[in-house]
Specification:
The protein is an all-alpha fold. It has a single domain, classed as Ferritin. The longest helix has 34 residues.
């Protein structure tokens, strides 16, 4: 029995010192930065949106995003790491693109809403890819609590993406198609 316990402890040590573990932690830091900056960007999208359905969808996702930040902090804690944000170049680029779309479309137009949905779905797809990978890596590394937390967020990101599609296909896209070119 002692050999098994020793082997498990040494396996745990080797995982903590592995390149995969380092990558996992780096990716957690990356998505932590991404979520914190998304939480700052979503109110601008809400303000820029015209349709009530889109505003509501983004408001709901802002609340979820704040919960995602908390879950990431819990994931860091569950693996014995301090929650640290490291700039996520991908999210920075996606958020910049979203700002450009809003500045290049007419205020109060449904065309702007289509642009906001497009930008928001690009963010969601990035987050879905990130959380899916992180959840899988957490499982491989034996971080079961972190895997559960990441899975919960992954499902919310997928739901947010579906809701944006519903808003777009429900009315926004077709109504935007009827708007005259400025």
């Amino acid at each position: 029995m002692k050999t098994t316990a020793t082997k498990s402890a040494s396996q745990a040590d080797s995982i903590e010192d592995s390149a995969l573990n380092e990558l996992f932690i780096d990716e957690l830091k990356d998505i932590y930065w991404a979520e914190k900056h998304l939480a700052k960007a979503l109110p601008k999208m809400i303000k820029g949106a015209t349709s009530a359905e889109l505003k509501t969808a983004i408001e709901n996702h802002l609340t979820e995003t704040e919960n995602h930040i908390t879950r990431l902090e819990q994931a860091f804690e569950s693996i014995g790491e301090k929650a640290v944000a490291v700039k996520c170049e991908a999210m920075a680029g996606l958020l910049k693109e979203g700002e450009e779309i809003m500045s290049e479309t007419e205020k109060g137009s449904l065309t702007r809403d289509v642009g906001i949905i497009s930008a928001a779905q690009k963010v969601e797809h990035y987050e879905i890819a990130s959380y899916g990978t992180l959840r899988t890596l957490a499982g491989v590394l034996g971080y079961n609590k972190a895997a559960e937390l990441l899975e919960a967020t992954l499902q919310e990101e997928k739901n947010a993406d579906s809701k944006l599609t519903e808003v777009a296909e429900g009315c926004v896209n077709s109504q935007a198609a009827a708007e005259p070119k400025e």
